[in-house]
């Protein structure tokens, strides 16, 4: 199986879906009548919080690992991540019987640190800066010969993440819109590509916290622009877009919305209370955006990617 070095095609995404099927769950699509009433739309939630390791990241990490030549894979997998991608790389390495080396910032949520360790990964902690992550990882790669699986700036990862929207479109072929959260943009890019290829009549939107609004700034200006690095409860969305992900987002999204910290907490509480499922703050950002922009989504059939459910239950925001 060849690694992808160019923008994934429709065939690449379908091939990736077939490749990773033994290593992922096909997650359910749920709906809530009461949330539909509040949003004035029919909302369909693709529940990647029920995915292996509790997040969509299992898709991209699996695709990247499985596309490696066996000799490279045997030397191990490595990455830097604050949590869900770390768990995904650790889990697929465990399933494939190869080493995993994970660089995590010191402030990574404890639930994600513990889960990553539980999958047997070798974890190295570093300062909570991008420079520290990259420097620490470079040393590990040099010492071990492991392959770096980037959290989002990798077409193999993007093609894997695209399979979530592919499944959603297969289950619900007549959606008016699909919306996903944006951090580094791997899921958003994959969602945009799958929608473009398999449901071109469906509009695609992104959502992110106001505190880390690089995608909004970049989309509006047409130039990739970093955010100011402010804190956000949506810890999975603190990264900036890459050139690869911004190129896809700029081309295929209809718009990008931002939401406040209070709106994220309210949406998270709403899903817990009304749908009785565990979701983390990052994954409800799209729902918060739909509720904030009723003029855009009123009366429409809207798919929402719920990206994960790895929550530190000792630090709930409500």
From TrEMBL:
GO molecular function, one term: D-serine ammonia-lyase activity
InterPro entries: TrpB-like_PALP, TrpB-like_PALP_sf
Enzyme Commission identifier(s): 5.1.1.18
Residues in Tryptophan synthase beta chain-like PALP domain copies: 20-308
One GO process term, biological-process aspect: D-serine biosynthetic process
Keywords recorded for this protein, A-Z: Isomerase, Lyase, Pyridoxal phosphate
SUPFAM superfamilies referenced in this protein's UniProt entry, alphabetically: Tryptophan synthase beta subunit-like PLP-dependent enzymes (SSF53686)
Cofactor(s) needed: pyridoxal 5'-phosphate
Database matches in Pfam families: PALP
Origin superkingdom: Bacteria
Membership in a protein family: Belongs to the serine/threonine dehydratase family.
Protein name: Serine racemase
Organism: Haliscomenobacter hydrossis (strain ATCC 27775 / DSM 1100 / LMG 10767 / O)
């Amino acid at each position: 199986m060849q690694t992808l070095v160019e923008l994934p095609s429709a065939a690449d995404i379908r091939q990736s879906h077939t490749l990773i099927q033994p290593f992922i769950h096909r997650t359910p699509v749920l709906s809530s009548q009461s949330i539909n009433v509040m949003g004035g739309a029919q909302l369909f939630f693709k529940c990647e919080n029920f995915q292996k390791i509790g997040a969509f990241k299992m898709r991209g990490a699996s695709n990247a690992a499985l596309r490696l030549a066996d000799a490279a894979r045997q030397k191990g997998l490595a990455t830097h991540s604050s949590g869900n991608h770390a768990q995904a790389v650790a889990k697929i390495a465990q399933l494939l019987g190869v080493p995993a080396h994970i660089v995590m910032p010191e402030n990574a949520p404890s639930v994600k640190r513990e889960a990553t360790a539980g999958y047997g990964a070798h974890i190295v902690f570093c300062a909570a800066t991008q420079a520290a992550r990259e420097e620490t990882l470079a040393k590990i790669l040099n010492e071990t010969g492991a392959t770096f699986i980037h959290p989002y700036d990798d077409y193999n990862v993007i093609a894997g993440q695209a399979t979530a929207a592919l499944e959603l479109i297969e289950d619900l072929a007549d959606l008016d819109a699909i919306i996903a959260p944006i951090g580094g943009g791997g899921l958003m890019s994959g969602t945009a590509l799958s929608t473009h290829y398999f449901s071109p009549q469906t509009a695609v939107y992104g959502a992110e916290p106001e505190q880390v609004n690089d995608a909004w700034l970049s989309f509006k200006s047409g130039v990739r622009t970093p955010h100011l690095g402010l804190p956000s409860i949506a810890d999975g969305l603190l990264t900036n877009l890459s050139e690869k992900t911004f190129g896809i987002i700029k081309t295929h999204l209809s718009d990008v919305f931002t939401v406040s910290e209070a709106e994220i907490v309210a949406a998270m509480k709403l899903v817990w209370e009304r749908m009785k499922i565990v979701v983390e703050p990052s994954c409800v950002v799209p729902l918060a955006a739909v509720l904030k922009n009723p003029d855009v989504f009123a009366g429409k059939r809207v798919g929402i990617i719920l990206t994960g459910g790895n929550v530190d239950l000792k630090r709930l925001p409500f």
